[in-house]
Amino acid sequence: MKNKLSSYFELETLQTTVKREVLAGFTTFISMAYILFVNPTVLGASGMDEGAVFTATALASALGCILMGVLARYPIATAPALGINAFFSYSVCVGMGVPWETALAGVFVASLIFMVITIFKLRELIIEAIPADLKYAISGGIGLFIAFIGLSEGGLIVSNESTLVGLGSLHVGTTWLTIFGLIVTAILMVRRVPGGIFIGMATTTILGLATNLIQAPERIVSAAPSISSTFLVALRHVKDINSIQLWVVVLTFLLVTFFDTAGTLVGLANQAGFMKDNKMPRVGKALASDSTAMLAGSLLGTSPVGAYVESSAGIAVGGRSGLTAVTTGILFIFGLFFSPLLSVVTPQVTAPALIIVGVLMAHSLSQIEWGKMEIAIPSFLILIGMPLTYSIADGIALGFIFYPITMIAAKRGKEVSPIMYGLFFVFIGFMWILNA
């Protein structure tokens, strides 16, 4: 069995092992397990049953991870994306007054369009048309973004009315838990200890339990909640998408998920060293995997599914094959029945891992031609835009809008591909719609 796994996932070629891949998959799962609890809370604001959303989230995530691992053979995990789930609940359902059943149908229609453009390789063409420098900027920007998430969730950075953000209070115990985890993980990484990120997370969890900063679960096993209230609801409400406003919602679901996933795939592929001649091998299979997961997720009862930046945590501990993603997918299935145990993985436990991964992903920034302003300006806007807008898609939009402008100003307009010129107009419309 072990030899078959090694052969199928080409572990020897990738210079990795089954043990390392399983550890990487576990690390990725621990880093993103919070979505099992966050997604039901966010979508619950739309009126959806939180228990059903919990189960739908776990199943959709598991399917996407396993497909990504088996078909595309990448160590990249998928799950319902943060940000777009908030748009689903607070903008569409609460803000526009759209019933959650209709919004879910909108996700279903968007996923069908997603699959069509994937089959015709339009998504693949767009990813390959992105200049190498902008891909490096996307990777580095995602690194800053997830580091910012880690600093925020760990309590080291907090909102501030005067300066927007500021240093968190050092009189809070959980903040010191984050600091402890960051110090331990940093030392392990500097000493090149295998699995340093995972060991840091485990050590932080143990300290949290010992000091009562993390509450021990009352039980370990529980039954998975019923999914009956959301299962196939999207199909029954497709007919309700009958206005321009609702089609704009569908388009927004499509665009945000498209560029969120594309940016994440490129960034993670750069981190893992998969990019070859500015192209991502097997990208078509990777895109087909996430679009299938998005379609399944809409039928199960959750917001759009996409590639997760937290996969970088697994890649950082050595994950290089699809076995990493398959392991994460299997753990999502087990997570259905061990939900009380997952509660010990608090934001303070995952925060140090996200910060360190941000450091690792910043390495790609050295590849950008900073000496050429026509490249530096759009690259910097992508880099700084992601954490400051709290959106991968918005950061990409800023850079892609400025890229043709700066290239034309530098009299290099002929080097810009037709697709990039097309994306210039797409993103202007995208920004207009989102900020209408």
UniProtKB/TrEMBL annotation:
- Coiled-coil annotated spans: none
This protein is called what?
Answer: Putative MFS transporter, AGZA family, xanthine/uracil permease
The superkingdom listed in its UniProt entry is Bacteria
Which family, according to UniProt? Answer: Belongs to the nucleobase:cation symporter-2 (NCS2) (TC 2.A.40) family. Azg-like subfamily.
Question: Which GO terms of the molecular function aspect are on file?
Answer: purine nucleobase transmembrane transporter activity
Record keyword Transmembrane present: yes
One Pfam family cited in the UniProt record for this chain: Xan_ur_permease
Q: Which UniProt keywords apply?
A: Cell membrane, Membrane, Transmembrane, Transmembrane helix, Transport
The answer to whether UniProt assigns keyword Nucleotidyltransferase to this entry is: no
Q: Which InterPro entries match?
A: Azg-like, Azg-like_bact_archaea, NCS2
Location of this chain's protein in the cell: Cell membrane
Q: How does it sit in the membrane?
A: Multi-pass membrane protein
Spans through the membrane: 21-39, 51-72, 79-98, 104-122, 134-158, 170-190, 197-214, 245-266, 286-309, 321-343, 349-368, 380-404, 416-434
Instruction: State any GO CC term.
Output: plasma membrane
Q: Which organism is it from?
A: Pisciglobus halotolerans
